[in-house]
Amino acid sequence: MSMSPATQCPPLIHDLLSRRFSPCAFEPRPVDQHHLLALFEAARWSASAGNEQPWSYIVATRSESDEFARMLDCVGRINLSWARLAAVLMIGCVRLSLQRGGLYPTAEHDLGLASASLVFEATARGLGVHQMTVIDREKIRDVYHVPTGISVMTMLAIGYPEANPSATKTVTSDLRTPRFRKPLSSFVFSGAWSNAWLPAQATPHLEQANARLTPHSSCSR
Ligand SMILES: Cc1cc2nc3c(=O)[nH]c(=O)nc-3n(C[C@H](O)[C@H](O)[C@H](O)COP(=O)(O)O)c2cc1C
């Protein structure tokens, strides 16, 4: 039976999901515009509460060097070592109120869903996406004139993942840590909060996967 790279166990999840990871190094290769268009199209067709489509993305490609530098300047310092290698940077923003007015309780969720669609479209095209929370939101508001009522949520670094990042000069092996996932029993409940739907013993192959170092590790500080 084939093993999925992310879990090293029988592939219970789709290959597209198991192949996704947050790269900490990118090849110095541009992303064709038709791929980029497809990523935005994937986000565009995402579901949203009441079909509100509250998301917006601001984009800068490496080929527009001034724009790229301006956006890179909004990345948090701890993310710079790998974000500066990306072919494309994006900022994910979301409208916090409904179009007819009033609170939009799932706005951030719906941006996340659109970004997830974008990420999986990217994965299907051999691209990697590393999302960022450590960004300078005030600077972004200022630089891009983001209006009141729009929240600056995330940045996304996109490009072709470097196949062997520890061999590059910019990312050394000590910047890489094993991927870790909590067991299902810690977040899937039944009947009452923290009452595991399935006890950990029922999914031993999934629990074992937590302890394994996987081929794709995530970046650490
Ligand atoms: C919304 C969001 C924000 C993130 N922010 C950062 C960040 O600022 N810096 C960073 O190194 N990784 C960031 N990550 C990546 C996570 O650390 C990563 O997804 C997690 O460690 C799991 O690794 P994986 O994506 O390779 O499965 C972020 C991920 C998401 C979804």
Search tags:
single chain, alpha+beta, NADH Oxidase, two-stranded antiparallel sheet, 7 helices, disordered N terminus, binds flavin mononucleotide
Q: What order do the helices and strands come in, and which of them pair?
A:
Layout: H1 15-19, H2 33-44, E1 55-61, H3 65-72, H4 80-83, E2 88-95, H5 107-124, E3 128-132, H6 137-144, E4 150-159, E5 176-177, H7 204-211, E6 218-219
Antiparallel strand pairs: 1-2, 2-4, 3-4, 5-6
Flavin mononucleotide is lined by residues 21-22, 79, 131-134, 154, 179, 218-219.
Per DSSP E runs of 2 or more residues, the count of β-strands stands at 6
Task: Catalogue the ligands.
Answer: flavin mononucleotide
End-to-end C-alpha gap: 36 Å
Q: What is Rg?
A: 19 Å
Strand proportion, as a percent range, falls in 15-25%
Nutshell version of this structure?
With 221 residues, the chain is an alpha+beta fold. It has seven helices and six strands.
